[in-house]
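Sequence in, structure out. Go.
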Amino acid sequence: MEDQIYASAIARIDLRKILKRTNNYAVRLYVYYGNHLYPPYLLPVKVTKNEWEIIRSNKRIKDEKLNKYRSIILAAEEKARKIIVQLGGAFNFDNFDLLYSGTRTKNTSHLSLNVFDGFKTKISECELEPEVYNFQD
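Output:
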């Protein structure tokens, strides 16, 4: 029996660098596939540590700005999870990036440069668009 490799996506506050003007931190969407981490997507949310704790709590938020931020974060995570489910066994970061952001990533350093990976990538692309590549006549 083949082991399953799972993909997941979660938004986190990026504490590595504080924004100078606002003293806030960026929020990024991290996508994992097995032991691999894709370069994170920057979300349009900038928060303090305290605001992040409030957003991530399950409590009702009265502040309109934080409520909006929570909605943005949850929507990004949900979109990523739906794409992961949609791709299923054909998951790879290029296909995920194409469906999530609408563009294919230029950073392909995570891919091995051999003919088998090229075939796998092309097969994955064909599986995403079965009406275009339907060879069953």
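Check: The beta strands are 7-18, 25-33, 36-37, 41-47. The first helix runs from residue 49 to 56.
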